[in-house]
């Protein structure tokens, strides 16, 4: 589902860059902690200055590239931290569900096991370029969530205040996946463009950063 929407969201982002903050506002009320501004925003914005038009010295190029890499790293860490919080809330919600009278304990046991396996299945900066790694993780997480929602909120209504908050927080975090990935790709593309421009000064050693965007 996220992959199918990816190309359209990237095109919309390119045409309407000012619209991205509005998407975050729509979920800020549900879970402010997930969408609070972080150092990643400042680093990405600072990194968006146009690359130098003249060849840089090796020292200048290395310093600039390090700054751009730091901004991409901060954006990726924000994405992973959001996913960590989502999985933590999911575990709490599954525990809450298991305490309710008449809970489908066999189904919940399967969901708890599969949810517990998600962190180990998740990509990182070194593995995300492997074919199918991101799609496999997204599919595994979606499979858990699609079975979790009907149990936690049958008919769209969670039975307790705690579950209502937990379901809202999980959905809020899930809606931020694509915007956060786009933010990382934006920072990584700036890094890669500068790397290509200053390849001679950099000695051709640094590697490009991987992207979520399908080329």
Can you give a write-up of this model?
- With 215 residues, the protein is mostly helical.
- It has one domain (2-10, 38-46, 54-201).
- It has helices spanning 2-15, 20-28, 32-35, 39-47, 58-98, 105-121, 133-152, 161-175, 177-197, 199-202.
- Helix 4 (39-47) packs antiparallel against helix 5 (58-98), helix 5 (58-98) runs antiparallel to helix 9 (177-197) and helix 6 (105-121) packs antiparallel against helix 7.
- The radius of gyration is 20 Å and the shape is elongated.
- The model is unreliable at 3-37 (pLDDT under 50).
The total strand number stands at 0
Work out the count of structural domains.
1
Proportion of residues in β-strands:
under 5%
Report the uncertain regions: 3-37
What would you call the structural class? mainly alpha
User: Helicity level, as a percent range?
Assistant: over 70%
What profile does the largest beta sheet have?
Answer: none
- State the end-to-end distance: 18 Å
Shape: elongated
Question: Can you give keywords for this protein?
Answer:
single chain; elongated; mainly alpha; about 220 residues; disordered N terminus
Give the topology.
Layout: H1 2-15, H2 20-28, H3 32-35, H4 39-47, H5 58-98, H6 105-121, H7 133-152, H8 161-175, H9 177-197, H10 199-202
